[in-house]
Amino acid sequence: MTIEEYFETGPDFERPIFDAVLSIMKTADPKIWFEPISVGIFFKRRTVLLALRPMTKWVAVCFHLDRRLNSDRISRKIIENGSRFYHVVNVMASDQVDTELAGWLLEAWQLDE
Q1: What is the pTM of this model?
Q2: CA distance 44 to 11
Q3: Cα–Cα dist 50/44, whole Å
Q4: Crossing angle for the helix pair 99-111 and 14-28, nearest 10 degrees?
């Protein structure tokens, strides 16, 4: 599906969050590849490095790092998978896609080389 088709049925708060995340990811790669599917939007490089999963009141921003983050922003139990740690940050508005979250997302992008 196209990104426009994806957003036809999504909650209103989702598009601005996607746009904010896309803007950050384009700083790493202007041709960043993302795929909208029925359950969310997956950003890909070598693997899925970032997923935006819409929930009732927020977008779950999911990413892997090679370290465990210690932050109140992490909304779910951190899952260890081999040498990577799966993190989720719940984002309710685009202004929550800030410098700190941007740093984590760009770190995830670099790890997926």
Answers
A1: 0.94
A2: 23
A3: 7
A4: 50
Q: Which two tokens stand for residue 42?
A: 């997956």
* Nearest-angstrom CA–CA distance, 52 and 55: 10
Give residue 92's identity as a one-letter amino acid code.
M
- Could you say which DSSP state residue 60 is in? E
- Which pair of tokens denotes residue 49? 């490095």
Residue in the structure block whose two tokens are 């081999």: 82
pLDDT digits (tens, 9 = 90+) for 60-108: 999 999 999 999 999 999 999 999 999 999 999 999 999 999 999 999 9
Cα distances (Å, whole numbers) of residue 15 to 27, 66, 91? 19, 29, 12
- Would you tell me how many other CB atoms lie within 10 Å of the CB of residue 74? 16
Measured from the Cβ of residue 83, the count of other Cβ atoms closer than 10 Å reads: 9
Residue type, 74: I
22 CB-side CA count, 13 A: 14
